[in-house]
Write a structure and sequence with these properties.
The complex is a heterodimer.
Chain A: E1 4-6, E2 11-14, E3 19-25, E4 32-38, E5 45-51, E6 56-58, E7 61-66, E8 71-76, E9 85-91, E10 105-110
Parallel strand pairs in A: 2-10
Antiparallel strand pairs in A: 1-3, 3-8, 4-5, 4-9, 6-7, 7-8, 9-10
Chain B: E1 5-7, E2 10-13, E3 19-24, E4 31-37, E5 44-50, E6 53-57, E7 64-68, E8 74-78, E9 87-94, E10 107-108, E11 112-116
Parallel strand pairs in B: 2-11
Antiparallel strand pairs in B: 1-3, 3-8, 4-5, 4-9, 5-6, 7-8, 9-10, 9-11
Classes of the chains: A mainly beta, B mainly beta.
Chain lengths: 111, 117
């Protein structure tokens, strides 16, 4: 069983809609969680991170962690076509820095 | 754009051949990791090098090997290519050995797309 599970989508939404992305995890020891964004033909880039004890907002993006259900979420408000990308969740790395990623959810925002 | 570069951008090989992929780390970064990303999947950790020594390895067979050079650039070598090796290969660099804190961010290159026929 993978330690991080993510619905691969694709998820298609009209411009201006709220995008909701989710991951589940199995290891309670993870200290924080990250969301990466990967545009086509590019490497992943860190979008934001959230400690396992709360939420975080950054502009149109909000990341949430629900420890009781081992559920993490990313919300994109007022979505734009430029938000079209694959979004990957990843828990905090191990002591060597190894990252484990979810499968990634492809998001398509249509004008 | 990150300061991590990879070459080539894409290449096509046939089964059984060998391939070498290259990565140039962001300036000042002494740790490099390689990931394999199959189509529709998240990146999977292959191995990591810190100051020219491998110090972490994922669930990949020995035909996946690597090198890190004194200037911290790196190579990924794959021998006896198989069809399932077709994927995007990502290199990521960072300045630490893995502190577990989010400030020790890994910066990814654009990847090399490998197709094995």
């Amino acid at each position: 069983q993978k330690e991080v599970e993510q619905d691969p989508g694709p998820l298609s939404v009209p411009e201006g809609a709220i995008v909701s992305l989710n991951c589940t995890y199995s290891n309670s020891a993870f200290q924080y969680f990250m969301w990466y964004r990967q545009y086509s033909r590019k490497g992943p880039e860190l979008l934001m991170y959230t400690y396992s004890s709360g939420n975080k907002e950054d502009g149109r993006f909000t990341a949430q962690v629900d420890k009781s259900s081992k559920y993490i979420s990313l919300f994109i408000r007022d979505s734009q076509p430029s938000d079209s990308a694959t979004y990957l969740c990843a828990p905090s790395p191990d002591s060597w820095g190894k990252l484990q990623f979810g499968a990634g959810t492809q998001v398509v925002v249509t004008p | 754009e990150t300061g991590v570069t990879q070459s080539p951008t894409h290449l096509i090989k046939t089964r059984g051949q060998q391939v070498t992929l290259r990565c140039s780390s962001q300036s000042g970064h002494n740790t490099v990791s390689w990931y394999q990303q199959a189509l529709g999947q998240g990146p999977q950790f292959i191995f990591q090098y810190y100051r020219e020594e491998e110090n972490g390895r994922g669930n990949f067979p020995p035909r996946f090997s690597g090198l890190q050079f004194p200037n911290y650039s790196s190579e990924l070598n794959v021998n006896a290519l198989e069809l399932d090796d077709s994927a995007l290969y990502l290199c990521a660099s960072r300045g630490g050995q893995g502190t577990g804190f989010p400030t020790d961010t890994q910066y990814f290159g654009p990847g090399t797309r490998l197709t094995v026929l």
